[in-house]
Model the fold of this input.
Amino acid sequence: MKDTIRLRSGAAVTQVSCREAQTKNYLDRSTMQLLHLSPDGAPVGYTPLDDGGVKFWFDPENVVGTDPELWYAPDARHETLVLPSGTPIERTTVRRAASMGFLTKERLTAMHLEVIEEPVAFSRRSSDKSIIYFYDKQTTVRMPLMCVRCGKDVRFKKKLCRACYEEDLAVRRAEGDAHRSQHYGMDRSRVLFFDLELTGFYDHDEIISISIVNALGDVIMDTLVHPIHTKKWNRTVKIHGITPEMTADARTLEELTPEIKRIFADADNIIAYGVSTDYSHIKYIYDTEEERLALKDKVRDCANEFVRYTHEHRPDVEHASLTDAMACFEIEWDGVAHTSIADTIGCMKVWEKLFPNYYAD
Done:
């Protein structure tokens, strides 16, 4: 299998011999220079050079004519320099080199780009006439980024090398374990779990089911809700199985509001899985911002806590849905998944796995 180089653009360039490249009528830079052409795309092949660099080859179908002003400097002496590989390169000005995407090695290194092709142009310093080489940015390779903490090794995760990441993880894991194992002394009867099912996925959608369970496992409320404005919800019925016919005789949210407010008023904590969506809908049963903020102060998000746990202990868990959390802790479903009562009970069980000392008993 032939070797390939992946350039900064993401293009993969395959190794070819000079004979193979010439057979396919590929052009190298020196030939294009004589023809006043420049590449209009990534190279199609490369040949290793004896000095460790590479020569790139370009498809003659993907070249463009070069503006003569980019190659010739009327106020500068025309000069050609032959590289050790035998490739001639033309003298140009710094400004013209930059306009073609040619930069110095120092500049490219500062951009975390590695030079692998030989110089494509050069200039001379006015002070001592020493040579400045220019390289094509398009044919560079991205250098591995170094750890932002120690700067000694390549990044592994979160901009840290493996050693620094493991050190950081140990600290975060210890803090997380202390947080989860803390004795909170909560009264099970005053800790509520709830879940909603909706007609859709947006803020304007309506609640069609609400379930509330306390930490003792008592079902405080489990009811369908009759939506006022929405008549059909074909997209979400496939998820929760609730049809318009099932909610036809149910109470409206307005009718349920006094009871929901009373239940929530007696709670110390109200926990849901992915609480932002549920809170954004249930908050509208309250008339004032003060009441809504009071409710928000009681709300806890089980999903956020599960994500923190997986980042610290189970990096193999890639997703953080309630189904993933249940599988992670090997918890069986009570009822049909994605119904509000099953999701509420599932959230309660996941929370107790995360916080084994959460309650007073």
About this structure: The longest strand covers residues 191-198. DSSP finds 14 helices and 18 strands in the chain.
